[in-house]
Structure formats: C-alpha cells, structure tokens
C-alpha cells in the first residue's frame, strides 16, 4: 500500500494544473462546484444539471477544501486528484487479485496498467472523470469473484451513482454474485441487501430533504440522447460506414431502423451471447454440461468484450467511453501473461483519444498520420474485438461437454 501511496503523491505533483481540453466540461465543473459552495450540494439539481449525485459530492469536497469562488476557479483542476485517488484504489485491487493468486512481483505488475498512457490520458489531459465509475465497477466485480457480495453491491451502488453508464456492468456482476448468493437463505439475502439500500438512501437524502428527489432521479437518464449523433468522436464501427459520422443524426437510418436502434440491438445481442453461458451456469441450467467457472480470467474476458461491443456498436459514443477497457483488459493480460491484446487495445484507446482531442498535437488541425485516422483506429478496434471473441469461443468450447 505504501508504494501506491507514494506513486499517488508523485502523480498529484506531476498532474497538469490546467485543462487543455474540454473547456465546456471544465466550465461545468467550476460552475457546479461554485453553485454548491454557495447553495449546498442539496440544491444542485435546481441548476438543471444532468449528472448523477455522486459526481456532485466530489465537487462538494473540492468546494469545501478551496473555500471561495476565486480559489475554486483557480484550483478546479484538483478534481483530477480525487479521480486519481479512486483510480489508485482500482490498481491496488489489481494487486490484491494477483496476491490472492500468489503471483511473484504482485505489487509491481499492476504498474503495467498504471503507467500506460491509455489509462491516465483521460484524467490527466482530458480532465474527465470516467476513471471513477470504472474503478468502482472493477472493484465491485473483484469483490463478486472474491465472494464478498456485500462489498460488491456497495461499490456497484457507488458506480451507477457516479455515472449511470456503469449499468453495463450489472449483468456480469449480478451473474457472478448470484452464483454465490443462490445458496443463501431469505434472511441472509435481506441482510446482504440492507447496506446497499442504506447507502443509496444516504446518497439521495439531501435531495429528498429539499424535495428534489425526482430531479436527482431523472439525472440518471436525462443525459441519454442529449447529443443524437452517430458518433461524438468515437472511432468505432460507424467510422467504417460513414466518412463523417459525427455530423449525422442517429435518428435517421435504414429499413425503418434508426442508427441508434441498430447500435443498441447490436450491443444487446452481442452482450447477450457473451453472457449466455455465464447465465446458464449461474442459474444451474445444463449444469452437467457447462463447466464454466466464475474465475477472474473468465469474468474479465467477458467484461472486456462487453465494454468493447458497447463502445464499438452504439451511437452517441465519445472517444473517452473506451477508457474502462484499459483497466479490465490490463488485469486480464497480467493474469494470462498475454500482453499482445492489451498492447493493441491500449493503442486503439490512445489513438482514438488523441485523434479526437489533439491534446499532445497542440492544435486543432486534423492529423495527417494514418495512425490517428478514424478508419485505421476503427479497424484496430475491430481486430481487438475479433481476438477477444476468439479467446472467448475457445473458453466456451473448452468448458462445454458435448455428448
């Protein structure tokens, strides 16, 4: 733990004290934080914000530490410190996973993920907070595999209350938990659920007391569909189909299906296929035929694929929505001692993030290099998805008895 604490302190000293990208988002962080400073976190939804409650608790902490509007404006970049702190918790959880499996150098290997530019680009340069819900989802899944359902549910509550996009992790976490919880009696299940219910009430309590519960609840869904474009900077399947997907409304489409609907059907269909063997195993269906285990290697492979198909096929995707895959794929790579796929997926994530933001490039002119072209990066993501699907099919065929 001391090693990761030292790295965190050094990281805070090295973090840029400016936002070089996302001026609109930076202004949101400042204006929301300043509003919370003057009127309290309990009134934030009167401002018409569309982020879930836990984000505003982070901003409340920044407001309390800074103490004045001027200091908030000058130091809003310190939100990056909080994001980094939570990300370090996820890296520490990688260490605990490796330690439980008796890996040599278990405290060093997680640094392969941490020192990967694709991992820290989103927070350090973008100034975005996707690393927080990613970390909470990862820790929740880890506790599920460790058969610690209470902690798993608590971290999942934190995940979806920070960003509702974390709901994509619910099926695999639920199936992993159910494989353990199905043996519990009714009383034990109730006792298991109570801490999570209590945490959710605590998160909502300030908004309940001010009569803004409905506004807080609506924040989970109001951001969906806010930017109805085929792409918001993601170099995914739509970059293979259209030259400028960012200019196309995703409500248009073909064969009476909008592009948004096609993307959602593709995601739900593929993720359903990925989860089907785990669902059958968890529910005890064809139990004598399916030998699939809810091991870290298996659930991380399934989760990595789910993140990828979510990002690759859906419309309205930002470049940063690929960020969660780095943590999950990185841990999987360490466990399997297979780093080729991790290298490729890290390249794809970084090339998309930099290609869309041009932060390191230093200007808004389009890249001329082929490496940063949407078509190339989209094909790279497609290759990565194909490789992970190959691994998945091998896993399934090796764990199903056909007779």
**Average pLDDT, all residues:** 91
Which sequence of strands runs across the widest sheet? Answer: 1-4
The total domain count is 2
The amount of helix comes to 55-70%
What is the H/E order?
HHHHHHHHHHHHEHEEHHEHHH
Distance between the termini: 49 Å
SS strand fraction = under 5%
Unreliable sequence segments: none
Q: Biggest sheet: strands, sense, closure? A: 2 strands, parallel
- Form type: globular
Gyration radius from CA atoms, angstroms: 21 Å
| Strand runs, count | 4
Number of helices: 18
Structural category:
mainly alpha
Protein name: DUF2029 domain-containing protein
Keywords: Membrane, Transmembrane, Transmembrane helix
Organism: Lacihabitans soyangensis
How are the SSEs placed, and which strands pair?
Blueprint: H1 2-14, H2 23-39, H3 53-66, H4 69-75, H5 79-100, H6 111-114, H7 117-124, H8 130-145, H9 149-162, H10 170-181, H11 186-209, H12 213-222, E1 231-232, H13 237-241, E2 253-254, E3 257-258, H14 259-283, H15 296-313, E4 317-318, H16 324-336, H17 340-357, H18 374-398
Parallel strand pairs: 1-4
Antiparallel strand pairs: 2-3
Helix pairs in contact: 1-5, 2-3, 5-8, 7-17, 8-9, 8-10, 9-11, 10-14, 11-12, 14-15, 15-16, 15-18, 16-17, 17-18
């Amino acid at each position: 733990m001391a090693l990761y604490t030292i790295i965190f302190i050094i990281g805070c000293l090295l973090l840029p004290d400016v936002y070089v990208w996302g001026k609109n988002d930076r202004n949101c962080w400042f204006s929301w934080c300043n509003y919370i400073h003057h009127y309290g976190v309990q009134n934030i939804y009167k401002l018409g914000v569309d982020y879930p409650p836990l984000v505003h608790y982070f901003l409340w902490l920044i407001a309390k530490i800074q103490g004045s509007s001027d200091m908030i404006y000058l130091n809003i970049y310190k939100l990056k410190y909080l994001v980094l702190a939570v990300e370090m918790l996820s890296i520490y959880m990688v260490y605990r996973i490796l330690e439980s499996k008796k890996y040599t150098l278990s405290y060093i290997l997680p640094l392969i993920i941490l020192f990967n530019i694709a991992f820290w680009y989103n927070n350090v340069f973008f100034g975005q907070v996707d690393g927080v819900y990613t970390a909470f989802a990862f820790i929740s899944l880890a506790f599920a595999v460790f058969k610690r359902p209470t902690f798993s549910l608590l971290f999942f509550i934190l995940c979806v209350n920070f960003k509702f996009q974390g709901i994509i992790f619910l099926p695999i976490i639920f199936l992993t938990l159910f494989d353990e919880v199905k043996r519990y009696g009714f009383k034990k299940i109730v006792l298991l659920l109570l801490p999570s219910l209590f945490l959710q009430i605590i998160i909502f309590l300030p908004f309940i007391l001010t009569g803004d519960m409905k506004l807080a609840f609506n924040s989970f869904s109001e951001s969906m569909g806010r930017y109805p474009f085929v792409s918001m900077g993601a170099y995914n399947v739509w970059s293979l189909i259209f030259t400028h997907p960012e200019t196309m409304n995703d409500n248009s489409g073909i064969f009476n299906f909008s592009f948004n609907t096609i993307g959602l059907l593709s995601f739900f269909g593929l993720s359903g296929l990925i989860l089907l063997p785990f669902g059958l195993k968890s529910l005890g269906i064809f139990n004598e035929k399916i030998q699939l285990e809810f091991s870290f290697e298996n659930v991380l492979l399934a989760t990595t694929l789910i993140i990828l198909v979510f990002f690759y096929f859906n419309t309205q995707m930002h470049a940063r929505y690929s960020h969660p895959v780095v943590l999950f794929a990185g841990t999987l790579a360490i466990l399997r001692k297979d780093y080729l796929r991790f290298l490729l997926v890290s390249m794809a994530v970084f090339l998309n993030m930099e290609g869309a933001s041009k932060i390191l490039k230093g200007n808004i002119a389009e890249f001329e290099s082929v490496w940063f072209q949407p078509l190339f990066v989209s094909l790279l993501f497609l290759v990565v998805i194909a490789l992970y699907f190959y691994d998945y099919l091998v896993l399934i065929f090796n764990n199903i008895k056909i007779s």
